[in-house]
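To the wet lab folks,

You asked to see what we're planning to order before we commit. Fair enough. Below is the target structure as tokens, and below that is the sequence we designed to fit it. If anything looks off to you, flag it before the synthesis order goes out.
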């Protein structure tokens, strides 16, 4: 993605998540019925989940691999060994979420799935209705037509953001959509080539990883703005198939060296697009302002109703329980981007 260099300097978890996400998909694609490989998949999926809360979407892959076996699904080792691997790396956070929030897969923005827009958040977050928000709450207030309209709008927007995540070229330009469309088309052709070659497990792994996450962001598009960083994991999974397709279609007389040179030239567009990020301060995203610690201590002593923002901290909040006196502090909204 053209924005990868910038994100690497500002929002580290997104690129870390994309890396673990793509590694987990690659592990699942090659696992077959190998117990050790599914355990490695689980380890990697757990690391992806520690990097970002969307990592639990990867647990769909071992279930899909087992269900592909039909009546023999219960004998497939994928769910058991992938689950054990996931618990190995993500078990501590699962326990912490269960102890603090009562939900092992707790996410701060889970209720956003059922809101219409940001105005819902601002009007409902401090009302008793906030606790009722969920699937039943949403379905009871929307017709099937409204849901279809929301989904249709989201699909269009999610497709555009996926193209941007795969693109090379100036942001917001026609070149961005053209290169993104080209790479996505090559990736789909590469997947078709793998399918025709009998490597169907790899294609199923990609579909089971990319499709649910993409559809989730398509649904969330109704609530608020999207960003390229949300779609980087999907781009990281698809781009290798585009590269495979380029190498397969390259004239035989070019040779491997020429193909590598072509791919390196294409990748250099990233540096042209976001070269300024190479000179940015790499510690900017994690550095603390001067005198932050004494200022934070003073605010905690003088806050009249507990935490000012019990969801957000530049330090650790692993041992900080939720403040029951406030359903959700307004200041938490400022840090949710």
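Sequence we intend to order:
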């Amino acid at each position: 993605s053209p924005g990868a260099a910038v994100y690497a300097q500002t929002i580290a978890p997104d690129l870390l998540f994309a890396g673990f996400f793509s590694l987990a998909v690659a592990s699942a694609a090659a696992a077959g019925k190998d117990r050790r490989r599914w355990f490695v998949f689980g380890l990697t999926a757990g690391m992806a989940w520690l990097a970002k809360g969307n990592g639990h979407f990867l647990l769909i892959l071992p279930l899909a691999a087992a269900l592909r076996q039909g009546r023999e699904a219960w004998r497939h080792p994928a769910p058991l060994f992938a689950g054990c691997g996931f618990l190995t790396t993500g078990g501590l956070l699962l326990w912490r979420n269960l102890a603090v929030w009562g939900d092992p897969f707790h996410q701060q923005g889970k209720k956003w799935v059922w809101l219409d827009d940001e105005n819902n958040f601002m009007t409902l977050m401090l009302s008793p209705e906030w606790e009722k928000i969920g699937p039943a709450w949403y379905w009871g207030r929307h017709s099937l037509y409204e849901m279809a309209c929301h989904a249709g709008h989201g699909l269009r927007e999610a497709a555009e953001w996926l193209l941007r995540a795969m693109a090379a070229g100036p942001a917001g330009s026609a070149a961005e959509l053209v290169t993104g469309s080209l790479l996505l088309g090559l990736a789909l052709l590469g997947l078709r080539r793998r399918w025709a070659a009998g490597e169907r497990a790899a294609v199923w792994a990609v579909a089971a990883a990319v499709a649910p996450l993409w559809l989730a962001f398509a649904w969330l598009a109704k609530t608020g703005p999207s960003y390229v960083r949300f779609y980087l994991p999907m781009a990281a999974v698809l781009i290798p198939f585009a590269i495979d397709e380029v190498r397969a279609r390259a004239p035989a007389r070019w040779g491997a060296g020429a193909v590598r040179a072509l791919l390196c030239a294409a990748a250099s567009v990233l540096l042209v697009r976001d070269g300024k990020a190479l000179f940015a301060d790499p510690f900017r995203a994690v550095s603390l302002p001067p005198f932050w610690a004494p200022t934070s201590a003073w605010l905690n002593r003088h806050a009249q109703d507990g935490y000012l923002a019990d969801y957000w901290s530049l330090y650790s909040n692993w041992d900080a329980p939720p403040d029951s006196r406030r359903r959700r502090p307004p200041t938490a909204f400022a840090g949710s981007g």
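Structural context that might help your review: Residues 49 and 55 are 4 Å apart (CA to CA). DSSP finds 14 helices and no strands in the chain.

Thanks,
Computational group
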